[in-house]
Structure formats: structure tokens, C-alpha cells
Amino acid sequence: MDAPTPASSSAPALTLERFLPYRLVALSARTSNALARIYAERFELTIPQWRVIATLGQSPVATARDIASHGMMHKSTVSRAVSALVARGLLRKEPNAHDMREEHLRLTDAGRRIYDSIVPEALAFEARLMTALDPQERRLFLAMIDKLDAQARSLAPDMEIEA
Amino acid sequence: MDAPTPASSSAPALTLERFLPYRLVALSARTSNALARIYAERFELTIPQWRVIATLGQSPVATARDIASHGMMHKSTVSRAVSALVARGLLRKEPNAHDMREEHLRLTDAGRRIYDSIVPEALAFEARLMTALDPQERRLFLAMIDKLDAQARSLAPDMEIEA
DNA sequence: CAGGATCAGTCTCACGCGCAACCAATTTAT
DNA sequence: ATAAATTGGTTGCGCGTGAGACTGATCCTG
Fold first, then answer.
1. Fewest CB within a 10 Å sphere: which of A110, A136, B23, B67?
2. Chain A nearest CA to B136, separation (Å)
3. Tell me: the pLDDT tens digits for A9-45?
4. Domains present along chain A, CATH in parentheses
5. What whole-number distance in Å separates Cα of residue A151 and Cα of residue A144?
């Protein structure tokens, strides 16, 4: 790409390189792709599958609906990821006697082993990424993400997000 | 979702809410979706189409390859977006006499009008989002994104990214 | 100045996704 | 009590995508 030639336009300049949504997408795509290598190539997990496992690793029992909202996924995406994981023996469905519509999901031992294998690598990756910032910056950065996320929610309140 | 129950696991804790890649994806998805409403619903543009237009709004002439790398898209994605935009009369292909392999792409007047309509709205959206941060924080935040992006590149150097 | 590597862009294929219709269980209203 | 509305989850469908093969053009190297 050439140097950004000013467009023959009357509109105020929109320079993607300085446009926040663009920067966010770029950074998030880069880190996600790098991280995906861990669980995709080495553990044969898709992104939704990893999100299901990550959620259940953190909260041992959850319904598909919980997982969908927590992982910002469509419920059909979760449903398919769950089916695949159950078929692989990494997840178990347990009927909920109090509400037969929902099913409680739980990692099997094999599922937890995979989770336990991925977590240290994911944390190590995060740590390597974070070396770009000093400790104070890290706190600041996460705090600012929180603020921006809250603001984004308030700007599009009714939106059910998909990643 | 319930309160994060500690998992019965020996692995170090991975709490998604505090995991940087997760936070980045969440924020980036939220802002992208909100922004997409502008150009998707009101101008009937897909995300790749908007990226093509945004790039050409900024650098009036570019090849498909330029646009792909600039917008972090696969070349086939760009190819299809370009075809659709040409069909709609928003883009023009011009053969390059010096290299018959590539084609120079340029917005038509209609294309530029759409670009000029979207830009102020996109900038207004960014501004509204940015109100969550004070001016100094904004500079800091963008600088930290740059640092993290550079670090992410160095951690996965050979990776050709897709958003 | 040939022949092989490289490059721009298109096209086919298979797949994963979001959507929306759907089913079954449960809650609410009448 | 019963019908209507709501909710959790699944499934069929259509579409857009990424991977990668392929075509034609250009460049490199001997």
C-alpha cells in the first residue's frame, strides 16, 4: 500500500490506522489467531469448542444458555460445539430434574485434562503478550478496556453480540 | 451464569473475564457489531465491502492485494467484495498498463458519495465510544494497542491474519 | 532468450455460521 | 384448569468465508 494519499473528498479524514474499531479488530484478530494455534492445531478444538471448555473449566456446571451468553456465541453455535464435545467424550450432559428443558453440562475427566493442558499455555501466551506493557500499564489497559466495553454496551444496548 | 466457582482443578486459574485475549475479542466484537449497523443496515454493505471502500476512500487507487493486506482479509474475500461493488457501480477496475496481472481499483462517484456518507457517522461513533476515556487516556490506550500489536506480531510472525 | 519461479486475481469446494422455524417443558394469565 | 406465551435447546437452510487449485502475466536466472 502506498503512503496514505489524501482522498479527493470533502469528508473529514478517516484514517484506518488511527480508527479505534479498526485497531481493536486488528489486535484482537492477531492475538486470537495466535492463541487459536494452541487449541486448534494441538487439541483439535474449534473456537466455539474451546470457549465451551474454557467456560466449564471456570464454572464446573452450566447450561448451554449460560455458556452462550458468557462466550458471546449464538445458541446454535453452542449447541453444535457441545454435541461435538460430547461425542468426543470431553463433556457430559446431565438432565436437570427441576427443569427438564435445560441440561447441565460438565467436563468429563478427559475434558478437564485437556483444559488443564491448555490453561498454562494460554496464560503463558498472555504473559508473553503482556511483556509489551509494564505492570502499571497492564492495570491501566484492562481498566480502560472495561470502560470502553461498558460504553459500547450502552451505545448498542439491545444487541446480542456474536464474536 | 453463576458466580465463578473455583474449578476442581490443579491448573492455575484462567478467569476469562480477566484474560486479555478474551477481553479484546469481546470489546472488538461489540464495537464492530455496533459499527456494522451503520454500513450494513443503512447502506447494504457487508464487512469486507466496507473495508474495501474504507481503504479506497483513504488511498484512492489500490490493487486487490493492497486492500487485502491493509484490511486483513483473504484475497478471495477481497475479490468477491470487489466484484459485488463493481456490480453495484461503486467501484471501477482499471487495467494497469505496466503490469497486466493487477488491476487498479478506484471508487466511482457513487462509491465516494457512500464513503462520504459513512465517514462522519463512523467518526461520530468512535467519538461517542471514546467519551469513556479522557483525552490523555485515549492517547495512552492507542499507544498501548500499538505496543501489544507489535508484540503479537513478533509472537506469531509468519501468520497471515484473517479477521 | 528460454524455462522455471513468483505473483495477481478468480473460482470451486467444503464448512461453519447466523437465522429462524421448530419441539418440548414450563410459566403466566384468564 | 387450560390456553397462550415464554424459555432451553436442536435442526434445516442459505450464505459468506477461507483454503487452495488454477490461469494468465511478469520476473528472474542461466
1. A136
2. 12
3. 455 689 999 999 999 999 999 999 889 988 898 899 9
4. 20-154 (1.10.10.10)
5. 10
